[in-house]
Design goal:
Length: 521
């Protein structure tokens, strides 16, 4: 393309014309050197014309973009074509003082002094970029607030509901113990227990979404998690979906609950399968990634640093923008038989582990879910050997629970399990029992959230009398007040998630009683 006769020879008329163009103009030769500059370019970049002329264009490009820019320039000269403002290229430039700023560039190919050059009109779009960033931030904030409000409501309901389910499940077991095996009544009780377990699984997903579910984070190698899960995923996807796995060598370790990471991969894979009713392709990828300050600038809810990037892509039906805006809301679903908790659970797991999740989708083309999980410098621990559950040996367990039904249930499990049980509905009763000294207490089983006093506060007071007292905290969700005691005092404390069954409670208590305890004081 030629912009007129004066453009071909670098005539004074064309150069004078460029001085009155409102945008900065930079002309670049095939070798990457600057051959054309106008006054607006001097003002925009802070360089004198002589400081730019015959210097490499890299002078105006941030170092981290220079390699990519070199490839784009080579491609442009291979096939030059005009790109106008509005349909141009958005990237970052750098001024003489080192400050970076966003620009929009339109390109034209002209002849200059008999040689083809790329003439770029450069426009500073800092104000527009900041306005778009502010709008994006407002959208993120509104979505976060909406999800947080829903999460608080869902988490509170699920926590209370878990207490009821725990009673149903365990009393069903009590009844089953008294019935004849294979009787009709035994089958009915088993149906009650299974229904309660399904309900408990749903409430657990609500707690995960609201970040109140009890988690047991470990340092993990994602490649090992995917490797152990791959066969299960292939069976779940069926023969019509072709699954591929691509994992970068030397993936960084992440810190998360392994069962939850498995749940993330299963939920996303099943969602992808359902989006491909006629079959298709599913690709699971993982690679190391570095999120820099520029990324954080446009994603302020993310910290800069090293991450493991997980991508799950499908060739399914895709989603429109209206659906994308609501996919993480609990109970929102486009499936006739869906619960609407799959992606809500994924969102809760990822954000609860300090990661972020983004979804890209086009109707008719498919969907990619991109997850960034922060890396951990710690070394993955070796798996602990599994042990058989044992009953009590007459140890005294003090049960503190403000819900009478839950308290009676725990007392019954422990009594049948071989423990001597003392029950207290109020923390004040438990304090008096421990201070009275009439009966030595070997272990305290306490609820965390109680009207009069938190379970952690109760433990602090009781340990003033019995410093080495072992404690099992029980709750439907992991509350921040647990961190100082229950999650760091590993030799004297343990945690069990409601609703629990008899075996889980007995195993937790037996394991804690058999741990060696360091001397306090």
């Amino acid at each position: 393309m030629k912009d007129g006769p004066d453009a071909t020879g670098g005539g004074s008329t064309f150069e004078e014309f460029l001085e009155f163009v409102p945008d900065a103009i930079i002309g670049v030769g095939r070798d990457g050197r600057i051959v054309l500059v106008n006054r607006q370019a001097e003002q925009l970049f802070g360089f004198d014309r002589k400081e730019m002329m015959d210097h490499p264009l890299d002078l105006l490009v941030p170092p981290r973009f220079r390699e990519v820019h070199l490839k784009h320039r080579a491609n442009y000269f291979e096939e030059p074509h005009t790109r106008s403002m509005g349909a141009g290229i958005e990237l970052f430039a750098v001024r003489k003082d080192g400050t970076e700023f966003p620009v929009e560039i339109s390109l034209s190919s002209i002849e200059w002094n008999g040689e083809p050059i790329a003439a770029a009109a450069v426009r500073d779009i800092s104000e527009r970029a900041e306005s778009e960033r502010e709008k994006a931030l407002q959208d993120q904030l509104q979505r976060s607030r909406r999800l947080e409000s829903v999460g608080q409501l869902a988490g509170g309901i699920a926590h209370d509901f878990n207490n009821i389910l725990g009673v149903i499940m365990n009393y069903a077991e009590f009844v089953a113990d008294e019935l004849e095996p294979r009787s009709k009544a035994q089958e009915d009780v088993e149906e009650i227990r299974r229904a309660a377990e399904r309900a408990a699984a749903l409430t657990r997903q609500l707690l995960i979404f609201s970040r109140r579910e009890v988690v047991k984070p470990e340092v993990l190698q994602l490649a090992e998690v995917v490797g152990e899960l791959e066969n299960l995923l292939r069976r779940a996807l069926g023969e019509r979906v072709e699954m591929s796995v691509s994992l970068e060598d030397g993936l960084g370790a992440i810190e998360a609950d392994p069962s939850q990471i498995e749940q993330v991969l299963v939920n996303l894979s099943v969602n992808a399968r359902d989006a491909m009713p006629e079959g298709g392709r599913l690709l699971i990828e993982a690679e190391n990634a570095e999120l820099d300050e520029e990324y954080v600038y446009t994603h302020p809810d993310t910290d800069a640093g090293r991450y493991v990037r997980i991508k799950v892509s499908d060739t399914g039906v895709g989603m429109d923008q209206e659906t994308l805006d609501r996919i993480f809301e609990p109970f929102f679903t486009t499936k006739s038989d869906g619960t609407g908790l799959g992606l809500a659970t994924v969102y809760g797991i990822v954000t609860g582990a300090g990661g972020r999740i983004d979804v890209y989708s086009e109707v008719g083309f498919g969907t990619t879910v991109k997850i960034h999980m922060p890396t951990s410098s710690a070394t993955p621990a070796a798996p602990a050997p599994a042990g058989e559950a044992e009953g009590g040996k007459g140890e005294v367990v003090l049960v503190v629970e403000d819900e009478p039904e839950v308290k009676r249930m725990a007392e019954r499990i422990l009594g049948k399990g071989g423990y001597s049980v003392i029950g207290a509905t109020h923390p004040a009763e438990a304090i008096e029992i421990c201070r009275g000294g009439e009966q030595s207490v070997d272990l305290l089983l306490t609820d965390v959230i109680m009207p009069e006093m938190l379970g952690t506060e109760l433990v602090e007071k009781v340990r003033g009398v019995q410093p080495d007292l072992r404690v099992v905290y029980m709750s439907g969700y992991s509350h921040s007040v647990l961190a100082p005691q229950a999650l760091t005092d590993n030799d004297r404390s343990a945690f069990i998630e409601k609703p629990f069954n008899a075996r889980a409670l007995l195993e937790t208590i037996r394991d804690l009683l058999e741990r060696p305890v360091r001397t306090v004081g």
